[in-house]
Design goal:
7 helices, single chain, alpha/beta
Length: about 240
C-alpha cells in the first residue's frame, strides 16, 4: 500500500511506480506519484496535482471537482488493496470510475486500505476506527483522503495548527480545513502507538494536496503535544 512511505523514508526509498491501467500515461503517473511523495515528505507544504487527461470533463459532469480525487486514487490504488468512499457527494460515481479502471476492491471504512471522506462528513469515530497496521506490519495502516474546499485560504472554523517533526524545518503554521479539534484528537489516538497509525492527505477542489503523515506532531494553540506522542515521533 502506497501510504506507508513516511517522510523519514519516502524520498530515500522511492522507486518509479508501476503504472496502473487507469492512469493516462507514464508522465501523468510520475507527476502524481511525485506530488504525493512530496506531500508526505514535506508535511504542511501544499502540492499541486496535474490533471489527468484520461478523465474527461464528462466523467464527473455534475461534480467536476471529483476529477482530482479520481486522479489521485488512480495512482494510489490497484487490485491488491481496498477502497472505501464515505460521506462524499457523488461518491458512488467516484468509486465506480476508480474501481473499473484499477479493479480495486471495495470495503468498509474500518477495513479499507484507503478511505475517502468529505471533510464535512468526517467524524472522530471514523478516524479512530481506521486500520492502524501492526508492529510487524505498520504499512497496513490506512490512508485517509479528506476532501475540502480550499487549502490556500483560511476557512471559517478550520483550526490553525503548528506542525513539527520529520520533513519540517523547525515548525510550520497551517490551516487544516476538515480536521476540527475532535478529529485531530482522534488522529492522536490513532497514531499513539507509532510506527502503527494512519496517514492523512487533504485535497481541495483545485487539486491542491497537503500531507499529514503519522510522524507529524500537530499542536493546536499553545497546547503542547502529549509526552507519549512527542516521544514516539522523536524515535522515528
Amino acid at each position: 500500500m502506497f501510504a506507508t512511505q513516511t517522510p523519514s523514508t519516502a524520498t530515500a526509498t522511492a522507486t518509479p511506480p508501476r503504472i496502473p491501467s487507469g492512469v493516462a500515461s507514464a508522465t501523468a503517473a510520475q507527476q502524481t506519484f511525485r506530488r504525493v511523495l512530496d506531500a508526505l515528505a514535506r508535511p504542511g507544504q501544499v502540492q499541486q496535482l496535474a490533471s489527468d487527461p484520461s478523465l474527461s470533463s464528462a466523467t464527473f459532469a455534475d461534480q467536476p471537482h471529483l476529477a482530482w480525487p479520481a486522479t489521485l486514487l488512480l495512482m494510489l490504488v490497484d487490485h491488491e488493496v481496498s477502497l472505501a468512499v464515505a460521506g462524499v457527494a457523488g461518491g458512488e460515481a467516484l468509486e465506480t470510475v476508480v474501481r473499473r479502471r484499477t479493479r480495486v476492491a471495495t470495503a468498509t471504512p474500518e477495513a479499507a486500505d484507503t478511505v475517502v471522506c468529505d471533510g464535512g462528513a468526517l467524524t472522530p469515530e471514523l478516524v479512530t476506527a481506521l486500520k492502524r497496521g501492526s508492529l510487524e506490519y505498520p504499512d497496513d495502516g490506512a490512508t485517509l483522503l479528506v476532501l475540502t474546499d480550499d487549502l490556500t485560504t483560511a476557512t471559517a472554523g478550520a483550526p490553525t495548527a503548528t506542525l513539527s517533526g520529520p520533513g519540517i524545518d523547525g515548525a510550520i503554521r497551517v490551516s487544516l480545513p476538515g480536521l476540527d479539534p475532535d478529529i485531530l484528537a482522534a488522529r492522536e489516538d490513532a497514531i499513539a502507538l507509532y510506527p502503527m497509525g494512519i496517514d492523512i492527505l487533504l485535497l481541495d477542489r483545485a487539486g491542491r494536496l497537503l500531507g499529514l503523515p503519522r510522524t507529524t506532531v500537530v499542536t493546536l494553540g499553545s497546547q503542547p503535544a502529549s509526552p507519549a506522542t512527542a516521544i514516539s515521533r522523536k524515535e522515528a
